[in-house]
Write a structure and sequence with these properties.
This protein has 131 residues and is an alpha/beta fold. The chain has a single domain, classed as Rossmann fold. It is 34% helix and 19% strand. It has 4 helices and 6 strands. The protein has a 6-stranded mixed beta sheet, sandwiched between helices. Helix 1 links the parallel strand 1 and strand 2. Helix 1 crosses helix 4. The longest helix is centred in the C-terminal third of the chain and has 21 residues. The two termini are 23 Å apart.
């Protein structure tokens, strides 16, 4: 089944409702607070998500600079997939639910390419993939 078995690593700033929505859709969810201290530095959070082969879900835009799709400089996390939530916290779960079919599609698409990362940004009124 396509999209089955996606594992998500939920940053401490992401509402629990997002994790519940992903679990309800049949995906595995790891909460940061079960693995690390809530205010762990972003590079450590990214490293733990990457080690767990999990898609990092965060409201923190700093992760964009840690694992860019392109640009000048050294990529620190070459296999880190991420979902950047750029919407307000109360809407985050509904926006994830609205984007879930696209997320599953992008995950499956990324598995077929040489760069296995999936990057999705979800805003109040937009959903954007970065390839």
């Amino acid at each position: 089944m396509l999209g089955a078995g996606i594992k998500f690593f939920i940053d401490h700033c992401v509402p629990d409702a997002v994790g519940r929505a992903l679990q309800a859709a049949g995906h595995e969810v790891i909460l940061l607070r079960t693995q690390l201290a809530p205010n762990s530095p972003d590079p450590l959070v990214a490293a733990v998500a990457e080690m767990n082969d999990a898609v990092l879900v965060s409201l923190d835009s700093d992760f964009k600079s840690l694992a860019p799709r392109s640009g000048v400089g050294k990529q620190r996390f070459k296999t880190l997939s991420r979902i950047g939530l750029k919407c307000n916290e109360p809407q985050a779960a509904k926006r994830i639910e609205a984007a879930l079919s696209l997320i599953v599609h992008e995950w499956d698409f990324s598995r077929r390419g040489s760069d296995k990362r999936m990057i999705v940004e979800i805003g109040q009124t937009t959903i954007r993939t970065i390839r």
